[in-house]
Design goal:
heterodimer, A: about 110 residues, six-stranded mixed β-sheet, five-stranded antiparallel β-sheet, about 0% helix, B: about 120 residues, mainly beta, seven-stranded mixed β-sheet, four-stranded antiparallel β-sheet, globular
């Protein structure tokens, strides 16, 4: 039973355009969401997060949107750069459950110059 | 600040053999995690330690997997005996505490890529 799903295994975007990565979840107990970025042969690195009390969090070129009623979140990257090419994982947590993260399957983003 | 260290980076073994992975977390991080990432999937938590105690090991296949964190710092994950389906990347992560908030997230090591033949 996949509680966090990323339905698009890959996404290709032109440099300078917007990249939109999507994530859906089923567990209504999740109240904290994170995005991780992973380059080949490296571990995932934290990118941005959002608490369930917010619907938007922005950090430079990266913005995460949360729609609790739809159990959906998205990561927007504007403008996309070739260095953003990586696998992006969505993760979710129940804040009082010991920092345990449930990850989605990942989306491979390719930004073409 | 040094990151999470893992060794070895790569390991190839035959099925039914044993293997062990080592992790050194970021200094001062009380919480340590082991994840299994099968090709094409997201990381799956195997076990979580707080200092040298186990917080959660509900997804650890205990008939063949074991993990320890004896002095509350370094940790080892062992598989004995290995099966073909254990081929994966084993990621170690650490965090300052049990609470998830802005910067108190998990920091991952580079992983150990295991191939079982």
């Amino acid at each position: 039973d996949q509680q966090v799903k990323q339905n698009s295994p890959s996404l290709s975007v032109q440099e300078g355009r917007i990249s939109i990565l999507n994530c859906d979840y089923t567990n209504s107990m999740f109240d904290y969401f994170l995005w991780y970025k992973k380059y080949p042969a490296e571990g995932p690195t934290f990118l941005i997060s959002i608490s369930s009390i917010k619907d938007k969090n922005e950090d430079g070129r990266f913005t995460v949107f949360l729609n609790k009623s739809a159990k959906h979140l998205s990561l927007h990257i504007v403008p996309s750069q070739p260095g953003d090419s990586a696998v992006y994982f969505c993760a979710a947590s129940v804040n009082n459950a010991g920092n345990m993260l449930t990850f989605g399957g990942g989306t491979r983003l390719m930004v073409k110059p | 600040e040094a990151g999470v260290a893992q060794s070895p980076r790569y390991k190839i073994i035959e099925k039914r053999q044993s293997v062990a992975f080592w992790c050194n977390p970021i200094s001062g991080h009380a919480t340590l995690y082991w994840y299994q990432q099968i090709l094409g999937q997201g990381p799956k938590l195997l076990i979580q330690f707080q200092n040298n105690g186990v917080v959660d090991d509900s997804q650890l296949p205990k008939d063949r997997f074991s993990a320890e964190r004896l002095k509350g710092v370094d940790s080892t994950l062992k598989i004995q005996p290995a099966k073909l389906e254990d081929s994966a990347v084993y990621l170690c992560a650490s965090s300052p505490s049990l609470r998830v908030r802005d910067q108190e997230t998990q920091y991952f090591g580079p992983g150990t890529r295991l191939l079982v033949l």
